[in-house]
Amino acid sequence: MALKYPSGKEYRGNKLDAALKPAADYANRGMTLEDDLNATNEYYREHGIAVIHKKPTPVQIVRVDYPKRSAAVITEAYFRQASTTDYNGVYRGKYIDFEAKETRNKTAFPLKNFHAHQIRHMEQVVAHGGICFAILRFSLLNETYLLDASHLIAWWNEQENGGRKSIPKQEIERRGHSIPLGYQPRIDYISVVDSVYFTGRGENL
Length: 205
Fold this sequence. Notes:
- This is Holliday junction resolvase RecU.
- Keywords: Cytoplasm, DNA damage, DNA recombination, DNA repair, Endonuclease, Hydrolase, Magnesium, Metal-binding, Nuclease.
- This protein is α+β, with helices and mostly antiparallel strands.
- It has helices at 15-20, 33-46, 116-127, 149-160, 169-175, 189-198; strands spanning 2-4, 51-54, 59-68, 71-79, 87-91, 94-103, 108-110, 131-138, 143-148, 166-168, 177-178.
- It has a six-stranded mixed β-sheet, with helices on both faces. The chain has a three-stranded mixed β-sheet with strand order 1-4-3, with no helix packed on it. A two-stranded antiparallel ribbon has the order 7-10.
């Protein structure tokens, strides 16, 4: 299936699949960062902890084939607009907005996993007093970190000025906060949000 940006450039990735597939089957939770976060957010909502949702991806379907009368196959679609970040919601009266990415790289996190419009969106959220961060997973190491948006933005801006195109893992370990993997919730990032943004109001950033 051909999925394209509004400009017509072909998109290579799995965001359309995520937008069109049925709700996650939590019997297979833990296989991807997205599955883990969706299960975690469901736990938060069910227990009255926070209201965080994955943002739907707006997609315009333009071509559908019908190889069988009982089945339709989408063969071409476009993003209606550039997406911002993956998740947003509210916790303890504060707006929360974050992006979630994973990499198989063991030593650094490639900045190509992000897009300029996502970084600009994060800047706007921070400017308006929202809590904004990235959840980064090193999948081969099974390590997950919360990195405040200010650090991600700084590395992005440095890249645009000719700097390196990835964030060293050592820098993420130093500036970020490790999120332990559990059962319920699967990725308890809210406990990290508590310690980073509500204990001392940002002293731990």
